[in-house]
Amino acid sequence: MKFAPSSNVRAICTAGLALLLAGMSDASLAQQRREREPNGVYAARRARIAAQTDAPVILWGFTGREEISQAYIFAQEDNFYYLTGHNEEEAGLVILPALKMGQSRDSWDGPREILFLPAKNPQKEKWNGVRLSPTDPDISSRTGFASVQPFAEMRAIVERLARYYPNFATILPYDKEIGGYPHEKAVVDWLQLAAPAAKLKDIRGAIETLRTIKSPGELAFLKKAINLSLDAHLEAMKMMRPGLYEYQVGAKMVEVHAMGGAEAEGYAPIVGAGPNSTALHYDQLSRKIGDGDIVVLDVGAQFSGYSADITRTIPANGKFTPRQREIYDIVLGAQNAVFAALKPGMNFCKSSDNSLYKISFEYINSHGKDLRGKKLGQYYIHGLGHNIGLDVHDPGESCKPLTSGMVVTVEPGIYIPEENLGVRIEDDVLITPTGFEFLSQRLPRDPLEIEKIMAEAARARQGESLKPN
């Protein structure tokens, strides 16, 4: 089955890339991302949030002090970045609710949205590079905000707003697997001091709902991240051989990302050989790769804040054993069965009438057995996929229907610890009005094609070694 992008999707992406390039600034500051969307895109998102609330929205970006490691490179909190495109520390945001139909003004006489930035600090900039500040002469055109004020004045603004609005909206904290909680709690604690009588509403859901549908600019960034990831995976296939360490393969993949313009990886690279192939988020990369090992490569680049998520499973010596090939073919068959049904309205829920997960599970459970004769479904221990975007696990609920404009992964897998055998195949797709666009199709999944690439690379290495010095 050929998975071709629709003409509508191609047109949208082409137009979005043109807007993206037109909106880029000539000046590049130290902390900003490689590229960003035009200011108007972020402003439109803020307007949509303003239209959905009756309370001022109060948000902070990360302070830059969330991580003390010397290896840490600042990256903005995802929801704040989504609304502002601002990737520097110690920023704040106020968005006033939209005026109702026919209403020209309300009791608040100040700006309808304000970006707060730290004051200019030349001494700090000598160490960390130039930062945007409220006193920069072009600050409004750079940020897209008519009002940019010192962060030190944010509390006074909030105290004034509390005279006119009984409620505030922010991101209320909750525990979750990846990040966010301490920062969210700090903002709530600060708000309760600045406006102790105000009731707080949660704006998280409204922002995250917007994030599920990708803009043309976001699609351009995701495609760049995905293509860098595919290049890295191809290099890994070509260099793979027994005797290497997992970290050497990971290092080559990271190098390909960096040379292509990636800021970082979307997550810690996973290169798991032999027994490590059965650990889903294995990140030690310390094993020496053995002859006969299967190797899971789950490595994705991040470009301009947007993360790919790609996995391939390959034989260390270039040739799948019969058992490895058997399990690989089952996982590949499950993924293809999902692709045959993938379209808007389907979901990743584990139990529903339109469940893509059920399609993958039933395929795996009916096409093979373990060494004791048990069905393989018990070794499929995770969900089928998730949204990607600013976060490699971007907002999106598995039981909600897929919608045109979402970018998701499709990643069935089987992990059999007693056989030191794990196989995962993961690809990234854009949901279109009638089906999907296969964004990572360039990277081979067919086992014979993988073996061919590896064999050709092995012959090239051998030829190089035979050349006279």
Mean pLDDT: 91
Report low-confidence residues grouped into runs of 5 or more.
1-28
- List the total number of helices: 13
Kindly estimate the percentage of residues that lie in beta strands according to DSSP: 5-15%
Cα(first) to Cα(last) distance is 49 Å
Q: Kindly state the percentage of residues in helix.
A: 25-40%
Rg (C-alpha, Å): 25 Å
SSE succession = HHEHEEHHEHEHEHHHEEEEEEHHEEEEEH
Number of strands: 17
Q: In this structure, how is the largest beta sheet organized?
A: 4 strands, mixed
What would you call the structural class? alpha+beta
Strand order of the largest sheet: 1-2-3-4
Looking at the structure, what is the overall shape? globular
Helix-strand blueprint:
Layout: H1 7-23, H2 39-50, E1 57-60, H3 78-84, E2 92-95, E3 113-117, H4 122-128, H5 139-143, E4 148-150, H6 154-161, E5 167-170, H7 181-194, E6 199-202, H8 204-211, H9 216-239, H10 246-259, E7 264-265, E8 270-273, E9 294-298, E10 301-303, E11 306-307, E12 311-315, H11 322-341, H12 356-366, E13 407-410, E14 413-416, E15 421-424, E16 427-431, E17 436-438, H13 447-466
Parallel strand pairs: 3-4, 5-6
Antiparallel strand pairs: 1-2, 2-3, 7-10, 8-9, 9-12, 10-11, 13-16, 14-15, 16-17
